[in-house]
Amino acid sequence: MTSQTTSQTNDDQLDPLMVAERWMLDGRDVAVATVIETWGSAPRPVGSHLVIDTDGNFSGSVSGGCVEGAVIAEAADVIASGEPKMLEFGVADETAWRVGLSCGGKIQVYLERVG
Fold first, then answer.
1. Contact 76/29 with Cβ under 8 angstroms?
2. Number of other CB atoms surrounding residue 73 within 10 Å
3. What gap in Å lies between CA 8 and CA 113, rounded to an integer?
4. How far apart are CA 16 and CA 35, in angstroms?
5. Which candidate, 106, 113, 102, 115, places its Cα nearest to that of 33?
6. Which of 29, 31, 77, 25 is nearest to 51 (CA)?
7. pTM for the complete prediction?
8. Main-chain phi, psi angles of 35, to 5 degrees
């Protein structure tokens, strides 16, 4: 195996969409979350992906860690129902218990079942 092939394989392992493809080929049900819009200071750019399977395994990031748990929880419903969801996260002013972005921005995430 050449170093270019090794490098490409390592890059594929880090690309969430390639991970999703491998998981689907393995027979897993998969959801993909995609950042479709950001406002203000956002931890991940538009186009960032998080992929989740039915067992809660995940790869990628839509927020640098601050809302991934909520997206993973919503993914279980999306995988089961097949119905996509639009999720929005931002600073939670009204309650400290709600999931929010500590960076002060907002993100909109489209979550869909694939495969």
1. no
2. 12
3. 27
4. 13
5. 113
6. 31
7. 0.80
8. -70, 120
